[in-house]
């Protein structure tokens, strides 16, 4: 089975193998970056820099909404990538703020190293194309959900996705706020609060101040429409 990262996205190590780039080659071309919990990797609007390959920990991707609020777009974990647009145009701006939500390590592939690697290993172009394709596929799935799924189901699907991401070392607890879930689901906070409260009354979740604990995974998945 293909190694996977958050939300079923393929692991960058696996993509490297498929593109003819072994993990050692990628690591040698990158700079190791370490971040403490709450530390910002880069801010929305910063000049485009490096592609980051997450090696350990998790980060939150947040952006400013048209109304000036800050919303959580996604949470990424080891095996995921972010900042790939920096290698495509090299002159743009960061479109979101990325913050470590726990101790994290990334492998940063700078544009200069990328260009050098391209001259030595033609497979690096395929690697970046595959990273971009994985990102586009994920975005397309999220867009379909936003266009065709009712708000209640989108909220529960976001909870289920985050439970899958955090359950390996957080048990059933999701260390995110209701506002985080609301912005990921593309609904208002009041809508998310209503849906989560109903799920709590139904025994599916326990809602804390800044955490959600999943009590019944099977029912959560059914309510999210993720089972046949």
Task: Furnish the topology, listing elements before pairings.
Layout: H1 12-18, H2 23-29, E1 31-35, E2 40-42, E3 51-56, E4 58-64, E5 70-77, E6 81-82, H3 85-88, E7 97-100, E8 104-109, H4 111-120, H5 123-148, H6 151-170, E9 173-174, H7 178-185, H8 189-201, E10 205-207, E11 212-214, H9 217-223
Antiparallel strand pairs: 1-8, 2-7, 3-6, 3-8, 4-5, 4-7, 9-11, 10-11
Helix pairs in contact: 1-5, 6-7, 6-8, 6-9, 7-8
Structure, explained:
The structure is a single chain. The chain is of the alpha+beta class. Helices cover 45% and strands 21% of the residues. The chain has two domains: 6-145, Sandwich (Jelly Rolls); 150-223, Orthogonal Bundle (Arc Repressor Mutant, subunit A), CATH 1.10.10. β4 (58-64) and β5 form a beta hairpin.
């Amino acid at each position: 089975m293909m190694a996977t990262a958050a939300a079923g996205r393929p692991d960058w190590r696996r993509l490297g193998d498929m593109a003819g780039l072994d993990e050692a080659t990628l690591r040698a071309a990158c700079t190791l970056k370490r971040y403490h919990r709450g530390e910002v990797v880069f801010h929305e609007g910063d000049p485009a820099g490096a592609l980051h390959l997450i090696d350990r920990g998790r980060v939150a991707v947040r952006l400013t909404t048209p109304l000036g609020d800050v919303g959580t777009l996604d949470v990424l974990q080891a095996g995921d990538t972010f900042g790939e647009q920096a290698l495509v145009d090299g002159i743009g701006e960061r479109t979101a703020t990325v913050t470590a939500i726990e101790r994290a390590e990334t492998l940063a592939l700078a544009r200069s190293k990328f260009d050098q690697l391209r001259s030595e290993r033609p497979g690096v172009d395929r690697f970046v194309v595959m990273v971009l394709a994985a990102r586009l596929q994920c975005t397309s799935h999220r867009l379909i959900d936003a266009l065709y799924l009712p708000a209640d189901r989108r909220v529960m699907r976001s909870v289920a996705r985050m439970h899958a991401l955090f359950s390996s070392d957080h048990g059933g607890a999701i260390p995110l706020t209701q506002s985080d879930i609301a912005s990921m689901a593309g609904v208002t906070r009041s809508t998310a609060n209503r849906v989560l409260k109903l799920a709590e009354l139904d025994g599916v979740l326990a809602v804390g101040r800044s955490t959600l604990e999943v009590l019944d995974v099977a029912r959560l998945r059914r309510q999210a429409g993720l089972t046949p």
